[in-house]
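Weekly modeling sync, notes
Attendees: AB, CL, MP (scribe)

Item 1: holo prediction request
CL wants a bound-state model with magnesium ion before deciding which constructs to order. AB pointed out that an apo prediction alone won't tell us much about the pocket. Agreed to run with the ligand included and paste results into these notes for async review.

Input as submitted:
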Amino acid sequence: MRVTLSVIKADVGGYVGHSSMHEALIERATEVLAEARDRGLVYDFRVLNVGDDLELIMTHGRGADNPEIHGLAWKAFEAATEVAKGLKLYGAGQDLLSDAFSGNVRGMGPGCAEMTFEERRSEPVIVFMADKTSAGSAFNLPLYRMFADPFNTAGLVISEALNSGFNFEVHDVLEHRKIIFSCPEELYGLLAFIGSPLRYAVKAVYSRGTGEVAAVTSTERLSLIAGRYVGKDDPVMIVRAQGEFPAVGEVLEAFSHPHLVEGWMRGSHHGPLMPVGFKDARCTRFDGPPRLVAAGFQVSEGRLIGPVDLFGDPAFDKARELALTVADYIRRHGPFEPHRLPMEEMEYTTLPKLMQKLRDRWLPIEAPVPTGGF
Ligand code: 13P
Ligand code: 13P
Ligand code: MG
Ligand code: MG
């Protein structure tokens, strides 16, 4: 059976502040999607959250970028926004950058990862959802580990199904263009680009053996769409596991090291990406640290069997502990780089306003220092 798995997310109101999700938003979005399932538009769905982001996970038969499916997601976000407004939740409708839906959520605020595949005899998939970070930042390094690093993924060495390698589709999110790196041969070239994750984001990974899609991420950048800071592009990713892909445990292993990502407070800081169970998907300290949940499903005839809360496991306690130690360490830098993002990155967010305000205050280095206050 041919199935499309669509994960579409938006922040339509935080509870409290940007920290978490009010249950009423999940309930409202669930009502909208349940109605769509009853009339056959989607096969199955789940509504989850990470922090203040509402996550719609849907299976259907209509392929990626389908106007009806995107329209459904938009409708669910609008309905949840109404509830958020009624409760005066924080930033109600934050990620819906337009009043009118135009056929596709891409470029309109929500984040989106979709893949279409022929269901295998058994189809394990993992949906990763992060808050207070961005796609390249959260997923470039782990995707490299999963699909290209034998020290992470034993299967690259010992499984014939994997050792034909993987193609990485990398997007230049500033220039709106893409490049494919064929690995392992082109590993160094791949790393040269994806090591700068704010500009170059891995959009998808494909098996070279079968051509099948292995992973897809959301790479929308809100600030580039809106032209100002309107919240982070809290990303999602879908990864297929087992068979010609890494095992579930190899996919998860890539997150056992809480690497530094951009995001966190006001979307303007570096901090560790902490893998957490669903019950801890709540951004508190300094609006974070940035967090990641993993929902495991078996897809069966289009149905979503699950989720299993894959990071809700003591095996990731050490990663969380390290994340907290790193959070303590880096927080003490306060407003200094590299805790705060570099100037160039702030230029797309909060800096232009400040620059404008102080525009006339700059003097030549040789000028005498003026006396008095300002
Ligand atoms: P099982 O023998 O439990 O199926 O595990 C196989 C495997 O590949 C684990 O990574
Ligand atoms: P969100 O992008 O999750 O809404 O967070 C915004 C923010 O400013 C957090 O400090
Ligand atoms: Mg928010
Ligand atoms: Mg968020």
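Recorded for review: The mean pLDDT is 94.
Action items: CL to compare against the apo run; MP to circulate these notes.
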